[in-house]
Amino acid sequence: MQKLTCEWHTPPEDLSLDRDEIHVWRCFLDQPAQQLEALAGTLTDDEAKKAGRFHFQSDRLRFITARGVLRIILGRYLGADPAAVRFIYGRNGKPSLAGETESRLCFNVSHSRDLVLFAFTYAGKIGVDVEFIDRHRKITHIVERFYSPEEISVFNSLPTDKQADAFFTFWTCKEAYLKADGSGLSFGLDKVEISLTPDKQAALAAIDGDTQRAASWSLQTLDASAGYAAALAINRHGLALKKWQWGISRP
Q1: Domains of the chain listed by start with CATH number
Q2: pLDDT tens per residue across span 133-185
Q3: What angle do CA 40, 250, 166 make, to 5 degrees?
Q4: Integer Cα distance of 2 and 21 in angstroms
Q5: Cβ contact 170:196 at 8 Å
Q6: Is 0.90 topped by the overall pTM?
């Protein structure tokens, strides 16, 4: 399956987000201690308390990194102090900026294992999803339950050693749409049909059987990192994508 393979770049000092752009940031969660201290300093009291409630230190540090980096990136786009950024939360817990108008900056966040992706745009509803490709996970019954007959046909046509990649690519495409739309998993992964073939870019084929509704959405798979599948969804077409690397990069 084709993936968007443009490289991840170090952002310029005078970074700006144009109205016809999407910016996706990649961050690895095992940051140096000095960086973690700076990121922790951007959190609100409630966020710091939430971090403290994690049982495992690794989970606590990942939360601090993900939320702190999100605050710093938003601060750059908004010209604001990262600690002053305020969020409101939707019905499925999806955060958005508080006090914004119709031209607001939209964003979405996804993390898996030691990797987090952030997506930003002024152009519309946006969702991003990343998943570690667990090649030991039993997936056949999940495919049969949540994938359409067309998706199952594509999955079954692939060599066994390619099926895990396909499974997680389908999954991240579905999740990216559900996160962008705000529906969440309660809407049903089986209601989101993906067109995905070895020689074409992924696309939304139907949403709850509605092909016209699906046609208004743009879907792209992303080369997040080796061993991960990722996808981006937005209810617009023709936007330029830029990919930025936060801090330490990996091969």
Answers
A1: 21-246 (3.90.470.20)
A2: 999 999 999 999 888 898 999 899 999 999 999 999 999 999 999 999 887 66
A3: 105
A4: 21
A5: yes
A6: yes
